């Protein structure tokens, strides 16, 4: 490996040390509905995001709240020596990708059948500390 490539790889490793990641795969909610809730909490402080997700009536918010708590637990296990100051944690990235689709048939008039696509999604959430960014 060249020196320049080695240096950029080391810098990338250092940047990832402050990040914490959590993934939710094959969630049986349509990606469009999940993106509405994900857009609401993107870039927010962790405490505010938990509050927003807890009191939001959408079904997807309950799943995202559980994912956010998992990301916080991952951050705690990665940074055991540090004192947990959750006010400095924020949601750096959150994105929703479409997963598999179950294809079903619904009966329709005159012997036809309409196709129903039951969609699912994959959610990836990345936490970062504001003190590391500054």
CATH architecture: Alpha-Beta Complex
Number of helices: 5
Amino-to-carboxy terminus distance: 31 Å
Strand content: 25-35%
Number of domains: 1
CATH domain topology: Ribosomal Protein L22, Chain A
CATH superfamily: Ribosomal protein L22/L17
Helix proportion range: 40-55%
Low-confidence stretches: none
CATH class: Alpha Beta
Q: Looking at the structure, what is the overall shape? A: flat
State the major sheet.
3 strands, antiparallel
Structural class: alpha+beta
Q: Helices and strands, in N-to-C order?
A: HEHHHEEH
The largest beta-sheet arranges its strands as 1-3-2
| Average of per-residue pLDDT values | 90
- Rounded radius of gyration (Å): 19 Å
Number of strands: 3
Question: Could you outline the blueprint of secondary structure elements for this entry?
Answer:
Layout: H1 3-16, E1 20-27, H2 31-41, H3 46-54, H4 59-78, E2 89-107, E3 113-129, H5 130-133
Antiparallel strand pairs: 1-3, 2-3
Helix pairs in contact: 3-4
Structural summary, described in words:
- With 134 residues, the chain is of the alpha+beta class.
- The protein has one domain: Ribosomal protein L22/L17 (Ribosomal Protein L22, Chain A).
- Helix content is 43%, strand content 33%.
- The protein is built from five helices and three strands.
- It has a three-stranded antiparallel sheet with strand order 1-3-2.
- The two termini are 31 Å apart.
- The mean pLDDT is 90.
């Amino acid at each position: 490996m060249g020196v320049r490539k080695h240096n950029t790889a080391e810098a990338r490793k250092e940047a990832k040390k402050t990040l914490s990641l959590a993934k939710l795969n094959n969630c049986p909610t349509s990606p469009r509905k999940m993106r509405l809730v994900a857009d609401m909490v993107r870039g927010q402080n962790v405490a505010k995001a938990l509050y927003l997700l807890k009191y939001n009536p959408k079904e997807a918010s309950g799943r995202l709240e559980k994912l956010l708590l998992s990301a916080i637990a991952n951050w705690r296990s990665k940074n055991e020596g540090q004192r947990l100051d959750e006010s400095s944690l924020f949601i750096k990235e959150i994105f929703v990708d479409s997963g598999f689709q179950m294809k079903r048939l619904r009966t329709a008039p005159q012997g036809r059948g309409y196709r129903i696509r039951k969609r699912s999604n994959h959610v990836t959430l990345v936490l970062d500390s504001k003190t590391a960014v500054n």
